[in-house]
């Protein structure tokens, strides 16, 4: 396949009207940011996040908190997917073609330099792919995007890259949209704190625990972004983040809830994020499918999206528009009586239903995260299970999300959220439901076989095969309890024009933001 040449992406294609300035009301001179306000000049875009990124390592940019800062701002990939059309477009590669069942050729964009001044070439692309997929640093992108499959990248010349796979891969160019390009001077055997990329911004200063500042890269190959700099701070309380925008202390605040008080500054948008509970089906009593089904029946999804967070109930980990989405899978109905019956049946058969199940939550994963887990806990207690909540910050929570999991943790339910930004179920099924998936706590040989079949298919057969795999997981495996397809809310200063799209929670592109006229 060959794609058209790409001008610097205007990112004006998302649904909805362009957001523009409204009259600011209730401005207060006092700071709500605490002792360390943002306090930057007029050329700086001020952004407040729910949490500090756990890492800026580019091969972990598929982690939401990291990707919001790095992807397409600091680092870029060979290709990129337009979130509104699903079309794969050129980025650091201007075109690509499939040379054989297991080989692709990419033509590298000329005139691109890294932030250290070194040229971006096919050799740098080959190095970046190897570092992300074949190194000892356990890149998240390896398990998440490539499922540990074998990929070999070779620079034919400065402008030509050949990428080979051990098995046929019909969506390799899409997978490579998640591999951030770095110079060959990057340590191949260790994680980096401050990556060097080709993006419109470079890292200026990261004061851990306080702020992160980016500055516009003067030699960027594309259209220069509107702002000379961007400064990120983080505040855990949604009401504080909202107040920082309404009081004029910040330009953008993300991860808000309806009751956080953003008022006219609040902007809702559809996301690709789906909230769910990962059930550790290897530990009793969760190894009994009746208990896993009871958990699903015990969750009041309608109540959660009405009273706790914004979204709509969902029954699968991908949203409409993703290849493999199965419209026949409906959200599990709220049936507390059936949940109680299933737990009683399992107990009568000797299943240790009195064993304490730890509900591992993450602070700030979405608005009112702790309250959501309390609602879930209440339903499970009423069903006859014993459940305790353990809320963690992001770094401690990641130890439960990614392999290898902590030893001796006992039966757990993990509060999690998945966003399939790439638009293909391959980026969901293998890593989350495969027996050896990077985020999978349980799988079955039959489901593994269904996933493998789907990954090798293309066109209509790919859609059908993944839809069948989702149905198999929902009917026969029940490895999780999907709760809702989330709606995002951000607060926007009247001085800023920005139109969020379904990818905003995963990567917030500063080049999309402009000063209001």
Please provide a written account of the structure:
The protein has 517 residues and is of the alpha+beta class. The chain has 13 helices and 19 strands. Strands 1, 8, 9, 10, 11, 12, 13, 14, 15, 16 and 17 form an eleven-stranded mixed beta sheet that branches. A four-stranded antiparallel beta sheet has the order 4-5-7-6, with helices on one face. A hairpin with a 3-residue loop joins strand 8 (201-207) and strand 9 (211-216).
Give the helix/strand layout.
Elements (H helix, E strand, L loop, with lengths): L43 E6 L14 H7 L8 E3 L6 E3 L2 E8 L2 E6 L13 H12 L6 H7 L4 E7 L2 E6 L6 H4 L25 E7 L3 E6 L12 E6 L3 H9 L5 E2 L12 E14 L9 H10 L2 H7 L3 E3 L22 H13 L7 E7 L6 H15 L2 E7 L1 H8 L10 E8 L6 H8 L11 H12 L2 H19 L2 E13 L3 E2 L16 E2 L2
Parallel strand pairs: 1-10, 1-11, 14-15, 14-16
Antiparallel strand pairs: 2-3, 4-5, 5-7, 6-7, 8-9, 9-10, 11-17, 12-16, 12-17, 13-17, 18-19
